[in-house]
Structures are given as structure tokens and as C-alpha cells.
Automatic annotation (TrEMBL):
Function: Participates actively in the response to hyperosmotic and heat shock by preventing the aggregation of stress-denatured proteins, in association with DnaK and GrpE. It is the nucleotide exchange factor for DnaK and may function as a thermosensor. Unfolded proteins bind initially to DnaJ; upon interaction with the DnaJ-bound protein, DnaK hydrolyzes its bound ATP, resulting in the formation of a stable complex. GrpE releases ADP from DnaK; ATP binding to DnaK triggers the release of the substrate protein, thus completing the reaction cycle.
Domain of life the protein comes from: Bacteria
Pfam families in alphabetical order: GrpE (PF01025)
Gene for this chain: grpE
Family to which this protein belongs: Belongs to the GrpE family.
Organism per entry: Pseudoalteromonas arctica
Protein's recorded name: Protein GrpE
Gene Ontology terms, MF aspect: adenyl-nucleotide exchange factor activity; protein homodimerization activity; protein-folding chaperone binding; unfolded protein binding
Classification lineage: Bacteria, Pseudomonadati, Pseudomonadota, Gammaproteobacteria, Alteromonadales
């Protein structure tokens, strides 16, 4: 039996057909691979969704913490501003009050060293005394208080010891005399009282 020979045209067509089939197979394999990559098992999809949910929860928690911190910062700023305003109101008169103290001192000295037996001076001294009381009443309305510790225990926070005197009549560190009154403004010292303080007498 003799072998059938193929003419060149049939051979070319056959090769083209084989090449086309190979290309179709390769395309099908590639499409199958891509489909396999895109397809995920239900467990994998659930795991991915759970991870996305956790990430969203973390983002919300971070944003919430940021809001809480911002609110706390605003509250602290508001509180500090209120304290600053309160202090400004409380001690706005400090400089003015310090300027008034020497005036009150001089009026009190005028009364202290005047001749109280002189009938001619009595109306004048009464007027000065009323002026001093008016001054003290006026400044006390704004928180200025007198520090006059005669007979009290020495307090270095409000008193300045100008001299120390031995004494058996009082306990040590007692204020024997007030040389100059002190003043406070809303509890804060404006000027210490200048005092003489006792100490134990030598045996």
C-alpha cells in the first residue's frame, strides 16, 4: 500500500489548524488560571470581610479618641482662661491698693503723734479718723484687709520682724508691738506687718 502524499497547500492548512488549536488551549488555560485566582472560598471571603470590619472599627476608635482628646484640650483651655480672668479681676486693684497704703499710713501717724489733749485739734483729728475709717471701709469692699497682729503669734508669711525683745510676760514669738500694719488683697499679701517679737528672757 502506497503512502498518500500531501500537497503543500494541505500541509500549510494543517499546520495553521494545529497552531490555532494550540492557541485556543493556551487561552483557555490562562482564562482558567485567572478565574481560579479571582474565585475565593467562602471562608476566605469571610476572613477578608472580618479583617476589613476590624480595620474600620480601629479607625472609628482612633477617631473617637482624637475627639475625646480634643474636647479635653478645649475644656482645659477654657478652664485656664476662666482662672486667668478670675485672677485678673481678683488682683487688678493690687497696684492701686499699694499706692493707697502710704496715704493711710500717713493719716494714722497724724492721729498717733498729734496732741490729743489740744481741744483745738480735736475736730481736725476726728475728721482724719473718719477719713481713715472711710479709706479702710472702701478698700475692704474690694478684698483689702488689714494685718494688725498685736498680741498674736509671729507668722513669717504675713509679718516681718523688725526687732526681738526678751519678755517674761508673754510666750516667745509673740508680737509685742506693731510698728506698721500690713495688708492683704483677697488673702494674698500686699505688705507684711512690721512687728516687734518676743523671746524668752535670759535667766
Amino acid at each position: 500500500m502506497s503512502e498518500q502524499t500531501q500537497n503543500p497547500e494541505q500541509e500549510v492548512e494543517l499546520n495553521e489548524e494545529i497552531s490555532k488549536m494550540q492557541a485556543d488551549v493556551e487561552a483557555a488555560v490562562e482564562a482558567a488560571d485567572q478565574h481560579a485566582e479571582q474565585e475565593q472560598s467562602p471562608e476566605a471571603e469571610i476572613a477578608m470581610l472580618y479583617a476589613e470590619l476590624e480595620a474600620a472599627k480601629q479607625t472609628i476608635a482612633d477617631q473617637k479618641d482624637g475627639v475625646v482628646r480634643a474636647a479635653a484640650d478645649v475644656d482645659n483651655i477654657r478652664r485656664r482662661a476662666a482662672q486667668d480672668v478670675e485672677k485678673a479681676h481678683k488682683f487688678a486693684l493690687e497696684k492701686f491698693a499699694n499706692e493707697l497704703l502710704p496715704v493711710i499710713d500717713n493719716l494714722e501717724r497724724a492721729i498717733e503723734f498729734s496732741d490729743k489733749e489740744n481741744e483745738t485739734l480735736k475736730p481736725l483729728l476726728e475728721g482724719i479718723d473718719m477719713t481713715v475709717k472711710s479709706f479702710n471701709d472702701a478698700v475692704s469692699k474690694f478684698g483689702v484687709e488689714i494685718v494688725n497682729p498685736q498680741g498674736e503669734q509671729f507668722n513669717p508669711d504675713f509679718h516681718q520682724a523688725m526687732s526681738i525683745q526678751p519678755s517674761n510676760d508673754v510666750t516667745p514669738n509673740t508680737v509685742l508691738a506693731v510698728m506698721q500694719k500690713g495688708y492683704t488683697l483677697n488673702g494674698r499679701l500686699l505688705r507684711p506687718a512690721m512687728v516687734m517679737v518676743s523671746k524668752a528672757a535670759d535667766a
